[in-house]
């Protein structure tokens, strides 16, 4: 049983259409903005870096590692 030329061309056109769409996905995540984990990480980083700077300044003013 042979397929007609019209049916074969329709299959080829459908296949070619799918080939051009390969790898293209819709943006499922979207733009949600800041999520709670991002806010938590930023606050943690600010506290950690701020504490480090505070300790360095305090050590520089006291003149060493041992408190007076």
Description:
There is one protein chain. The chain has 68 residues and is an all-alpha fold. Helices cover 63% and strands 0% of the residues. The protein has a domain of 34 residues. It has two helices and no strands. The longest helix is centred in the C-terminal third of the chain and has 27 residues. Keywords: Endoplasmic reticulum, Membrane, Transmembrane, Transmembrane helix. It is found in: Endoplasmic reticulum membrane.
Keywords:
68 residues; mainly alpha; 2 helices; 63% helix; membrane
Can you lay out the helices and strands and say which pair or pack?
Layout: H1 5-20, H2 36-62
Percentage of residues in strands: under 5%
**Share in helix:** 55-70%
Total helices: the number is 2
Overall pLDDT: 82
Number of strands: 0
Task: Point out poorly predicted stretches.
Answer: none
**Element string (H = helix, E = strand):** HH
By secondary-structure content and strand pairing, the structural class works out as mainly alpha
Largest sheet: none
Report Rg: 32 Å
Q: Report the principal-axis shape.
A: rod-shaped
Distance between the termini: 99 Å
Pfam family, one: RAMP4
Keywords: Endoplasmic reticulum, Membrane, Transmembrane, Transmembrane helix
Subcellular location: Endoplasmic reticulum membrane
Membrane topology: Single-pass membrane protein
């Amino acid at each position: 049983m042979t397929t007609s030329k019209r049916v074969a061309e329709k299959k080829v056109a459908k296949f070619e259409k799918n080939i051009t769409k390969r790898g293209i996905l819709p943006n499922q995540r979207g733009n949600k903005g800041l999520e709670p984990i991002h806010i938590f990480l930023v606050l943690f980083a600010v506290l950690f870096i701020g504490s480090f700077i505070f300790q360095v300044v305090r050590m520089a003013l006291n003149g060493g590692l041992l408190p007076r």
